[in-house]
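Here is one such tokenized protein:
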Amino acid sequence: MGFAQERTAPVVNTRSGAVRGVTEDGLAVFRGVPYAAPPVGPLRWRPAQPHPGWSGTLDATEYGPGSPQAVREGDPVLGGHGSPPFDEDCLTLNIWTPGTDDARRPVLVWIHGGAFVSGSGAMPTYSGETFARNGDLVVVNLNYRLGPLGLLSFASHASNASDASEGGDGCGNVWLTDQLAALRWVRDNIAAFGGDPGSVTVAGQSAGALSTAALAGHAGDRLFRRAILQSVPLAMPLATPAESLARTAAYREVVGVEDEEELRTLPWPRLVEATAGLLSATMEWGHWTTPFMPVLDSRTAPRQPALNLLDGPGADIDVLVGWTAEESAFAFALGETYVSATKEQVLRRARDSFGDGAAEAYAAYEAARPGARPVDVLVDLSTDELFRKPTLAFAEERAVRGRPVWTYEFAFPTPAHDGRLGAPHCLDLPFVFDNFDTWSHAPFLAGMDTRTRDGLARTVHAAWIAFVRTGDPNHPAMPRWDRYDRPSRTTMRFDTVTRAVPHIAPH
């Protein structure tokens, strides 16, 4: 935490102290603003605690470090997702605003994905400048604890969960307490940055979307009124306490320690290094898995996330939700293990989902994609199972209850890797942010016709802005997008030609 010398720059007084940002292309930008106490030393694996504040004026011109994570170089899809510096002292957020005035603009809070093991608010791809400038919005993104530092559960948590407060030890989801602390910071401070704390939309993709649904369980605090769920894996349920403790035990075995106390003494690089070993020990062929999963606990996440937005505290939140057409190509389409898969291998995987009906299901998927290889069947099966089917079922349940929900399918295929990816997980992100210049490192955008690409990005980006501003994604430059309801079951399909599709169904 550094303190700036006096100079001409935007200064805002927060409840923790004054912060000085920087003006960039007409926007006031504040980076690396602490929203909770550093989760280090005795606060490791403790719920987020209030920041003690500071005197003087905090220099908020540089991003704070991201949560400790492994760095994967040369990813054939994204090119990478998160880069140093990393540090346990990572609970900071970033703000982009058209003005530090009293305009009370709508607020967009973005929560990055990354399977709860990668990503940060410092990534240029998640910069809020396009939304702030094009939508006259105040945009916030944040870091939260990832991997073993954010998702390990311990016996002390499980035993105390029934009677501990959120601020005590009875919590298995410290990542979620981080996000809640950030939203409370927004509620308490965003008006000073030109935002309206009564008009907050929380949006996220993948793990960020699951986080958004989990945060809706705390809607009684009036932290946000709208939610955007991009590629939310609703078929990945939160772990039970017993399952989470078993995963922690497996992790301790990988690290080579006996108990929680010994684990607490290890430096974070060693904790992160063991993540790869845990993934190897727990992965199953043909299943898209992550080494750490959130856990059901009575204080932070007492129910599965989707239920928060059906009959739970977030039932009245407006929801926009969707998926990409070939989500699971991200995991399976390029790896040699799956590219060379045989029909029998995929049939064995299909039995996990369809039992005795696996052969019939395989034939149906094969027929739906002429010339399909076994890996293509696996991609479509997995996409349906993890994303498309549960998202449509969620929309049906919202519609039955008369709750507003808009659904979309992002189906614009990338020509990268000879077209083998289709429209994979994450492909919608540069279109939503309309910021392709920050994605130059990403192989999955190679070969796109820029005119078609940019036109679709303007359409998608404007729809997201409209939803944040009004709760309705419609705007003049796109076809009419009706709410999902039982008679029409309308889904907007974003593709070379964007159109509303009735009665869309899984493969």
In short: The chain has a mean pLDDT of 93. The first helix runs from residue 129 to 135.
